[in-house]
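Notes from the 1:1 (GR / supervisor)

We went over the backlog. Supervisor wanted to see one worked example end to end before approving the batch request, so GR pasted a single chain during the call. The sequence is below; no edits were made to it. Supervisor asked that the structure be written out right there so they could see what the output format looks like.
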Amino acid sequence: AVFNNVTLDPNLFPEAKIIFIEHVTRELLWQQKWMEHPNGALSLEEVALCVEDVDSVSEKYSRLFNSKPAFPMKGVAQFKLSEGKVYIVNPAALAKWVPGVSAPAVPSVFGVGFSVRDLEETKRVLDTNSVNYQSHPYPGIWIHPDITGGAVVSFMQSE
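Structure output shown during the call:
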């Protein structure tokens, strides 16, 4: 597979390793045999970063995305992109968003969310594999970072 990658300076973006990737040989990567997963995941829908200063980091990402964020709750900025969302969250808001969870470090990526074909089927797959999850109101579920390798992993019903 061939890719064109642009990686942003980690000194300017310490919250995450930001990479823009062009899949030059999409036919090698996007084969149907690799597009199905038993959990029903369809696409990456959201990424969440935890930072101390939501306002200053949001300003920086506003320039990167050429977009202004919404602020759905105190301590949370939400960028709606053409494909998915990026959340910038402070530690206090993180504690309300996913109770009992703290970021592995500040700053860091603390969560990723996937849309799924059928949320009830995803729950059945997780139950069958003895994976504990919590309900989230949008409708969705999330898995505690203790069992995912450090990040909150969420699944939400596709629209």
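Supervisor's comment: The longest strand covers residues 41-50.
Batch request approved.
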